Amino acid sequence: MSLTKRVLIFDLDGTLLDSMGPHSDVFCRMLWERHGVPESISRPIYVREMGKGPRPQFVAVLKARELMDDALADQLTADYWEVAEAFRPSLFPETIWTLESLRRQGHTLIISSGGRPEFVLRNTRSTGIEHLFRLVLGSDPGVRDMAKGPGHFRLIREALGLDAAELRIRGVFVGDGVYDMQVASDAGILAVGRLTGDNGETLRDAGADHLIESLRELEGLLEAL
C-alpha cells in the first residue's frame, strides 16, 4: 500500500460536476445560430480543446472556418458565460463520498479549472464541496499565473511550500479533457483521465497515465502506486 500523501489536483467540469453536456450544447448552438457552423465541426473541436476554457475553444472553431476575429471571440465568450452561468450543475453521484474519503486519508485536494474564478467558486459553494479543497483555482487570462497549467502549478507549489520536483512526486492531476492530460504530462505530474464516453484513446494520446470510469476508482489506484 502506498503511504505517500498526494496532492490531488482536480479539473471541475466533467470531472467532479456533471456539466459538460449542457456546456457543449450551448457552445455548439451559439456557433450554429450565429455563424452557421455545423455541430459536426464545433463539437469535435470543443472536445479536443476541453479544459482550456471557452475562449480558446471558440478561437479554434473560428480559425477552422476562417472567421477568426478577436472581438468576435471575446463577444462569443462573454455571451457563452452569461448563458452557462445560469446553469446549475450537479455533482456526479460519487463525488462527495470520494472527496471526503480522500481527504480523511490525508491527501491534499485542489481544484484547477479553466472556468472563470467566480464561476468556479460559485459552483463549488453551491454544490457543498468548497470546504474539501485547499485551493480552488479558476482561470483568468488577464491575471498572471491564473490559468490551468504552469500558472496554477506555480500557485500550488507556493501555497504548499513545494518545489517542482516535490510536486512531480506527489502530484496527481485528474481530468476529463485532452488539455488536462497535456498540462499534467508536460509538468511531469501523474495524469489520470476520467472516461466520458469513448474518449479513452484520446486521453491516452494526450498523456494520460491511467484511466478511470468513476472517481471511486481513485482510492484503489493511489494505493497501488
Structural class per helix/strand content? alpha/beta
Strand content: 5-15%
CATH topology title of the largest domain: Rossmann fold
Average predicted confidence as pLDDT: 92
Radius of gyration: 17 Å
Q: Helical region count?
A: 11
Give the helices and strands as they follow along the chain: EHHHHHEHEHHEHEHEH
Shape: globular
Helix content: 40-55%
**Annotated CATH architecture of the largest domain:** 3-Layer(aba) Sandwich
**Can you summarize the main beta sheet?**
6 strands, parallel
The CATH class of the largest domain is identified as: Alpha Beta
Give the termini separation: 8 Å
Q: Which runs of at least 5 residues are low in confidence (pLDDT < 50)?
A: none
User: What strand line-up does the widest sheet have?
Assistant: 3-2-1-4-5-6
Number of strands: 6
Count of separate structural domains = 2
Relevant CATH superfamily of the largest domain: HAD superfamily/HAD-like
Task: Describe, in plain words, how this protein is organized in 3D.
This protein is of the alpha/beta class and 225 residues long. The longest helix has 16 residues, at 20-35. The protein contains eleven helices and six strands. The N and C termini lie close together (8 Å). The chain has two domains: 7-18 and 90-224, HAD superfamily/HAD-like (Rossmann fold), CATH 3.40.50; 20-84, no CATH class. 51% of the residues lie in helices and 11% in strands. A six-stranded parallel β-sheet has the order 3-2-1-4-5-6, sandwiched between helices. Helix 2 (39-48) crosses helix 3 and helix 9 (178-186) runs parallel beside helix 10 (200-206).
